[in-house]
Design goal:
Layout lengths: L19 H4 L1 H8 L8 H9 L7 H20 L15 H14 L8 H9 L6 H20 L16 H12 L10 H9 L7 H20 L16 H14 L4 H9 L7 H17 L9 E2 L2 E2 H13 L5 H16 L1
Antiparallel strand pairs: 1-2
Length: 339
């Protein structure tokens, strides 16, 4: 009669000392079955007649926030609400964030009941935002696979929805190899990525393996890795340039021990200056003897110069020397023959 409603503050006490604010919750909880007690139809009707609101304050707040969440879902198709998003007086982003925190901590179970969780999940609630982002990126990866029949995604690739798929796929590879910070991939996530053609080797590793395979093929065919700088294999691998990069990285100390070991197993020649040293010995023989027809048993400074020169001439005929080596040897033989 005094206030026109029964929105009684929780701490309200009447002039006679009765804690009405605390009492008003009793019939609400009895009707909800939260506490034991009996509430007759007549008692319910009497309370209804004077404006009883059966929902508690948290219930009213839930209904208001959930309605805002439903509107957001209908408009956006998800509940990935930005943290600062607010609409119609509801700080929806903060509310969604709180719910996720409470769910993870197992807090506020009376507020976040199983029924309410089910309501949220029906409109796209994902309790872990990291899980949500993983699923979103995985769907983008699956679409890429369906279109391209592989998951060899360029590192800078961004799909039509703005998802940086190339970066994400690269991060998945690094996570599995323990090269990136973050929660390790679960067996289920690895299995699902395998299903859509995930290549776990890094793109840079893949390119190196392709070059190494070409190098092995060259050695099997020609017996060495004295690859001309202009050499390109039948399948398009620029092997000459690749070999030069390995030598440069070796010199700088940036080539891994594993790669060094594998290259040395196929007789990689790291120092091309060794060729020039042997060639200078052949030139010295010419200056001393007036001919480059060096006996194969001729040895100088510990090098079998004659045998070495015979091998180089054969390699030159086969087109397997570098341009500079070819030029130098041609000059030496030309001068020798002219004499």
């Amino acid at each position: 009669e005094e206030n026109g409603d029964l929105e009684v503050p929780a701490r309200f006490v009447t002039a006679g000392g009765f804690s009405l604010g605390r009492w008003i919750y009793n019939p609400r909880y009895i009707r909800k079955g939260v506490v034991e007690g009996a509430l007759t139809e007549r008692q319910t009707a009497l309370l209804d007649a004077i404006g009883m609101r059966w929902h508690t304050g948290p219930d009213v707040g839930w209904e208001r926030n959930f309605a805002a969440a439903e509107r957001y879902y209908r408009a956006n198709g998800n509940l990935d609400v930005p943290a600062k998003y607010a609409a119609d007086g509801v700080a929806l982003g903060r509310w969604i964030g709180n719910l996720r925190t409470w769910e993870k901590a197992g807090a506020h179970r009376k507020y976040l009941t199983k029924e309410r969780k089910a309501q949220l999940e029906a409109i796209g609630m994902v309790w872990s935002r990291l899980d949500y982002l993983w699923e979103r990126n995985y769907r983008a990866a699956a679409v890429y696979f369906q279109t391209n029949r592989n998951l060899d995604v360029p590192s800078r690739y961004v799909d039509s929805d703005g998802i940086r798929l190339g970066e994400w796929v690269g991060r998945m590879r690094r996570l599995r190899q323990g090269l990136a910070k973050g929660a390790p991939l679960s067996d289920e996530q690895i299995r699902r990525l395998d299903e859509i053609g995930m290549v776990w080797i890094m793109r840079t590793d893949s390119a190196w393996e392709k070059g190494f395979a070409a190098a092995c093929g060259y050695r099997a065919r020609f017996g060495n890795l004295l690859v001309p700088s202009s050499c390109v294999t039948d399948d398009g691998v620029k092997l000459g340039a690749w070999i030069q990069r390995q030598r440069l990285q070796y010199k700088k100390g940036s080539l891994s021990e594993e790669r060094i070991r594998r290259l040395e197993e196929v007789e990689m020649v790291w120092d091309t200056h060794a060729w020039m040293r042997r060639f200078s010995l052949a030139e010295q023989y010419y200056r001393e003897h007036g001919t480059a027809d060096i006996p194969q048993n001729y040895v100088a400074e510990g090098c079998w110069v004659g045998k070495w020169l015979a091998v180089q001439r054969r390699l030159r005929k086969e087109g397997r020397l570098t341009c500079e080596q070819d030029r130098l040897l041609a000059a030496l033989d030309g001068v020798s023959h002219a004499v």
